[in-house]
């Protein structure tokens, strides 16, 4: 009786587990490390003079999010910070919806081009990533300023000058511009593998364009829609640069609220608690999307 063949001791090309140890240590140090520090700071005490933390456990930072103390020392419900979160949620949601409306036709058009044209067009979409975000934001300041290109064009057309910079509109415009590629690329990734003969079959069977779009193309693009929405919504929720530089910081959002706690207010535990609350909200959002994807059998990934 012949002996069974023994499996090879090592698969060719595969490294032993300890070869990945440096990468795992560095990854844990630079990803989990800051999170652990922020979570720990959120349960510390604010020093009397502010700035830094006192290593004494307390939940005062989380209490401050919903309640404030009256002169009598009683806890009174305070909705101010909830309103900040609500404004940030609305702005992030509007950015996500507008990015989808703009990105879907663009991604669909790119997916229907020749392979060479697709490569060039995808390259064009990624060009904004080649430059620093601050440089691009300052370019928008030059465009939206009182003597900027838009106002000069408006004056030349007899429409007069308009107050564009340091408004909510400028902040929203900056968010849409910044995160639009994050919606285009996942949508293109879903649509590029789509067999457009299915759409032609729909037309042959008498379906209209709207029906083909709703019944055939959109369901196939669903993974890209979910991925793109998450990739736009999550960073837009805590954005700091656009609301401050383009919106002038006139409207308090989550990003500049957290920055102010670590800056002028010198309340590090409360700033850390706000960061943990955002993290928990986004974690619940991802969990809900993951459960929905598992039940519906939809493949969702957070990659461009």
Provide an overview of this structure:
The chain has 304 residues and is an all-alpha fold. It has one domain (55-296): MetI-like (MetI-like fold, Orthogonal Bundle), CATH 1.10.3720.10. The protein is built from 13 helices and 2 strands. The chain has helices at residues 21-42, 60-66, 80-111, 115-126, 133-144, 149-156, 168-192, 197-204, 209-220, 222-237, 241-245, 254-262, 268-296; strands at 67-69, 75-77. A two-stranded antiparallel sheet has the order 1-2. Strand 1 (67-69) and strand 2 form a beta hairpin. It is globular. The chain starts with 20 loop residues before the first helix and ends in an 8-residue tail after the last helix. The mean pLDDT is 88.
Keywords:
304 residues, MetI-like_sf, MetI-like, MetI-like fold, Spermidine/putrescine transport system permease protein, two-stranded antiparallel ribbon, membrane, transmembrane
Task: Provide a brief overview of the structure.
The protein is mainly alpha-helical and 304 residues long.
- The neighbouring-strand order within the major sheet is 1-2
Structural class, judged by helices and strands? mainly alpha
Name the overall outline.
globular
Oligomer: single chain
How do the SSEs run, as a string of H and E? Answer: HHEEHHHHHHHHHHH
**For the residues shown, what is the average pLDDT?**
88
- The percent of residues in helical segments reads 55-70%
CATH class: Mainly Alpha
User: What's the β-strand tally?
Assistant: 2
């Amino acid at each position: 009786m012949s002996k069974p063949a023994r499996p090879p001791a090592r698969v060719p090309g595969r490294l032993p587990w300890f070869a990945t140890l440096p990468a795992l240590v560095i990854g844990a140090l630079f990803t989990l490390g800051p999170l652990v520090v922020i979570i720990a700071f959120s349960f510390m005490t604010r020093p009397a003079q502010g700035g830094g933390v006192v290593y004494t456990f307390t939940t005062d930072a989380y209490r401050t999010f919903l309640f404030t103390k009256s002169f009598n020392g009683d806890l009174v419900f305070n909705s101010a910070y909830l309103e900040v979160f609500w404004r940030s949620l609305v702005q992030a949601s509007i950015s996500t919806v507008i990015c989808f409306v703009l990105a879907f036709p663009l991604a669909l058009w790119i997916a229907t081009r020749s392979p060479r044209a697709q490569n060039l067009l995808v390259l064009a979409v990624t060009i904004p990533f080649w430059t620093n975000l601050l440089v691009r934001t300052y370019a928008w300041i030059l465009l939206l300023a009182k003597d900027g290109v838009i106002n000069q064009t408006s004056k030349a057309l007899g429409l007069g000058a308009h107050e564009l910079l340091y408004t909510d509109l400028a902040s929203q415009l900056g968010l849409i511009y910044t995160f639009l590629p994050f919606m285009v690329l996942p949508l293109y990734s879903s649509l590029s593998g789509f067999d457009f003969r299915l759409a032609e079959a729909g037309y042959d069977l008498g379906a209209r364009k709207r029906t083909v779009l709703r019944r055939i193309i959109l369901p196939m693009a669903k993974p890209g829609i979910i991925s793109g929405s998450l990739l736009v919504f999550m960073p837009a929720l805590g954005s700091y640069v656009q609301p401050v530089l383009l919106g002038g910081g006139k409207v308090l959002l989550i990003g500049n609220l957290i920055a102010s706690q670590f800056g002028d207010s010198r309340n590090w535990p409360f700033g850390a608690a706000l960061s943990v609350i955002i993290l928990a909200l986004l974690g619940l959002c991802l969990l809900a999307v993951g459960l929905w994807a598992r039940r519906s059998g939809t493949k969702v990934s957070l990659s461009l």
